[in-house]
């Protein structure tokens, strides 16, 4: 795969999947636009990437209206976007009965409305050129639900639905739309997950610590982008098989998830 002179915009690029995607795309020759809240981390990543055509655009997805306005104003100064990867997001590990309502607002602002805002700004430029890929990172939790994830899963289900509709609408404009649903990937997502008060829980999770290596996951994602897939599951073990199990054995799956007691 050769991405020389292609521009790839990645949100959530300061860590985890986003950071690894940036590293691998840069190694394939792409110019990467790095977005996240932490400018220091983005600068550090930029300095480590192969090539010198990379840019930093700090974004706070929790303020989607500001993202839409900021990016719309910036587009004329940026190179044409070939691939937009909506990766930025936040997870949650807490029970519905214990959650403060604001937790749901936080999750939807970042995971759903922030994603829509950036896509809303960038998609018209792709339509005008009649080429480009819009990639959104949902989650296996966007295909199946489980305990402790009511807010996170709800926001990620919303991403899957949005992308299904967007794919149908943009097909006539030759725009590729891919939804990626990762399972358990070795990142800091569990540490950054919100508790019932909307504060990062700062503790590990067994399934994440034993999940797929992030470099392997990113490679699979790039392969799916290259092959213009519509939707892919990326994960190993139960986290990768969960959507299939629920599809064919829904009652069994529901009984198993009801017995889950770890966060």
UniProtKB/TrEMBL annotation:
* Keyword Cell inner membrane among UniProt keywords: no
Q: Where is the signal peptide?
A: none
**Per its UniProt entry, which superkingdom is the organism in?**
Bacteria
Record's GO cellular component terms: membrane
Keyword check for Oxidoreductase = yes
A GO MF annotation of the entry reads: oxidoreductase activity
UniProt-listed PANTHER family: DEHYDROGENASE/REDUCTASE SDR FAMILY MEMBER 7B, DEHYDROGENASE_REDUCTASE SDR FAMILY MEMBER 7B
Q: Which family does it belong to?
A: Belongs to the short-chain dehydrogenases/reductases (SDR) family.
Write down what this protein is called: 3-oxoacyl-ACP reductase
What's the source species for this entry?
A: Pseudoalteromonas carrageenovora IAM 12662
Q: What is the lineage of its organism?
A: Bacteria, Pseudomonadati, Pseudomonadota, Gammaproteobacteria, Alteromonadales
């Amino acid at each position: 795969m050769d991405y020389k002179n292609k521009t790839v915009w990645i949100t959530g690029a300061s860590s985890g999947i986003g950071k690894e995607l940036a590293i691998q795309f840069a190694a394939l020759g792409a110019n990467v636009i790095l977005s996240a809240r932490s400018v220091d981390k983005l600068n550090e990543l930029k300095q480590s990437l192969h090539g010198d055509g990379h840019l930093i655009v700090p974004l706070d997805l929790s303020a989607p209206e500001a993202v839409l306005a900021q990016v719309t104003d910036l587009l004329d100064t940026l190179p044409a976007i070939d691939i937009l990867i909506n990766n930025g997001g936040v997870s949650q590990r807490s029970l519905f009965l214990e959650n403060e309502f604001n937790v749901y607002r936080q999750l939807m602002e970042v995971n759903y409305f922030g994603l829509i805002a950036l896509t809303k700004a960038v998609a018209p430029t792709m339509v005008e050129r009649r080429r480009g890929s819009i990639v959104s990172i949902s989650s296996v939790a966007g295909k199946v639900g489980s305990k402790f994830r009511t807010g996170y899963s709800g926001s990620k289900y919303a991403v899957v639905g949005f992308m299904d509709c967007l794919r149908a609408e943009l097909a006539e404009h030759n725009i590729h739309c891919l939804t990626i649903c990762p399972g358990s990937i070795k990142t800091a997502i569990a540490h950054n997950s919100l508790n019932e008060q909307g504060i990062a829980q700062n503790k590990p999770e067994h399934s994440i610590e034993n999940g797929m290596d992030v470099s392997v996951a990113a490679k699979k994602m790039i392969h799916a982008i290259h092959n213009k897939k519509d939707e892919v599951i990326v994960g190993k073990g139960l986290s990768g098989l969960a959507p299939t199990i629920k599809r064919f054995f829904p009652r069994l799956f529901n009984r198993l998830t009801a017995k889950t007691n770890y966060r």
